[in-house]
Design goal:
Blueprint lengths: L2 H10 L1 E5 L3 H12 L4 E5 L2 H11 L3 E5 L7 H11 L4 E5 L5 H5 L1
Parallel strand pairs: 1-2, 1-3, 3-4
Length: about 100
Amino acid sequence: MDHKKFAKKMELSTLLYIEDDEQLRKHFTEFLSRYSQNVYACEDAEEGLRLYEEIKPDIILLDINLPGINGIEFAKKIRQKERFTRIIIFTAYTDKEFLLT
């Protein structure tokens, strides 16, 4: 896919961003808004699940370490409902033991 097609696809995509760090959430939401007209953000997985049901996003971006339900468990809950939403999980952790368990 060339750059123009990708940019157009992103612009029309609905994104859900879940991050508990307020500053990071604010800045990354601003960044994502440059590429998509439909960016929704929240601070925890429970609110993320509610928003997911409401907006049915094309792409979900979330932190692995969220309060309550963590990012992995959140992704499992989404996969139980459907398989086509793209889910990207990220973290600032560098501890290999944490990441592999």
